[in-house]
Amino acid sequence: MIKVEDTTIYCTRGDNGNTLNNNLEFSFNDVDGNPVLFREGQKVVFKVFNPKDVTDVVIHKEILIEEECSSVTIPLSSDDTSIGQYINKPVKYNYEISIDDTGTIIGYDEDGPKLFILLPEGGE
Length: 124
What we know:
Layout: E1 2-5, E2 8-12, H1 17-20, E3 24-27, E4 43-50, E5 53-64, E6 71-74, H2 78-81, E7 91-99, E8 103-106, E9 114-119
Parallel strand pairs: 2-9
Antiparallel strand pairs: 1-2, 3-6, 4-5, 4-7, 7-8, 7-9
């Protein structure tokens, strides 16, 4: 399961967004509420990291925009979501999305961090 509620992402460890047809898809509005258009050649970067050590990045995805669009799909593979060892309770990470490594469009703000919650999967 991979789902987004408000700005929190829930993901079962080891799940593959491609197979389940539930990749992450994001769109954004500017301060006036108008949709932000992503331009050809821009790079959208999605990072999930340890909230106690922001240099400990556990997922790093870069999406190159091939044509102008109003939303971006971030594919997640089983390898991407198999973070660490098996867990028996949810583990909270933070995430951010930026454009061209220069402008954060979603991340830590006045409302606090954006959460990526890794949910347990069954063992083998």
